[in-house]
Amino acid sequence: MAKSGDSELIDVPQATGEAEAWGIELREWMELRTHVFGNADAFGDFISEDSAEEEWRGRVAQVLIENGHAPKANRYIECCRYGVRIQCKGPDAHQLFSPVYCDLRYCPWCGPRQFARLIEKHSPAIKAVTRERKPGYLLREITFTSLNTGELGSAQIKRFNDDVKNTLKKLLRRYGEWGALWCDEVGFNNTNLHAHVLVYAPYIEQSVLANAWRTISGHSVVYIKKAHVNGPKALVHLLKYVSKLPADVPEIIGQLEVAFHKCRRVHALGVFYDFSGDDTDNIESEWTNCPHCGAELERLPGTCRLEKLIMEGRTFVGTRRVKWKRELVH
């Protein structure tokens, strides 16, 4: 359940450093923290209350079912509450389990996982342009807005992203090296679709930007400014809302999942596209090797509650180095 709170925030650079020191990905660090502390809240807006969360997820799932997305609804219901048995094929036959992750865009458990994957995917581009910045080029922030009609659907989102892409290309394609990365967002508890863009480019006049956006999209509100932070911090600032829920009403969350079905939230153009890592936006990740011995893993059929898996004596597939978990706890 999402709401404002005073929970301790994750220091993303520190978390990245710890993950590198431990030889794991930031996504795996997030998963370890989830199972030590009960959540992986990158920005302090999520608290877990078991019965309330079950009721919340049920209401989201109902919207998904009503709109023909029953498989997604099932994944949302089971996320981090159910798990799968994993069998190590090595001589010690380690008995493991892994939680089931839905990896839906608006899941309070999986949002931080997606945030971590996107940071890993796009950090190389940001570091490259920061390290070798061309004269006159800066990281700048653009916000494109659209008319809030009170409704939001996949066709509207796709058209909006096409308009953003075409506007950026019209303004920047004459430059040899430029890059743009944007994230689709909506207003809290409403359907106000807009995009925050991190662009690496020379100066663009506000009037030129506004005219191009109005000509291509028909919308009139857009503005540009110099990024208030630089380097990887600018990327964290751009993507932070990926880990946050944009509503505290479960029916709205369900409607957003329906609207963004087969629609990407994060997009890259230019050098940011060329430099980006593997495309892991909104896909499920899996552990492939035994964390204890490196042997191949076999996922056994079926799912059951995490409590039962723990009572069977199985260990979480991410607890490879016990001392790391102790360091997280302390």
Mean pLDDT level: 81
Q: Which stretches are poorly predicted, pLDDT < 50 over at least 5 residues?
A: 1-9, 36-48, 279-284, 321-330
What is the count of DSSP helices, taking H or I runs of 4+ residues?
Answer: 12
**Radius of gyration based on Cα positions:** 21 Å
Helix content: 40-55%
CATH topology of the largest domain: the name is Alpha-Beta Plaits
Question: What is the domain total for the residues?
Answer: 2
Itemize the secondary structure elements and their pairings:
Layout: H1 12-22, H2 26-37, H3 50-66, H4 70-78, E1 82-88, E2 95-99, H5 110-131, E3 138-145, H6 154-172, E4 179-185, E5 194-201, H7 206-217, E6 222-226, H8 232-239, H9 250-259, E7 266-270, H10 271-275, E8 297-299, E9 304-305, H11 306-311, E10 315-316, H12 322-329
Parallel strand pairs: 2-10
Antiparallel strand pairs: 1-2, 1-8, 1-9, 3-5, 3-6, 4-5, 4-7
Helix pairs in contact: 2-5, 3-4, 3-9, 5-8, 6-7
What do these coordinates show?
The chain has 330 residues and is of the alpha+beta class. It has 2 domains: 12-104 and 284-329, no CATH class; 110-275, Alpha-Beta Plaits, CATH 3.30.70. The chain has 12 helices and 10 strands. The strands form 2 sheets. Strands 1, 2, 8, 9 and 10 form a 5-stranded mixed beta sheet that branches. Strands 6-3-5-4-7 form a 5-stranded antiparallel beta sheet, sandwiched between helices. The two termini are 26 Å apart. Mean pLDDT is 81; it is low at 1-9, 36-48, 279-284 and 321-330.
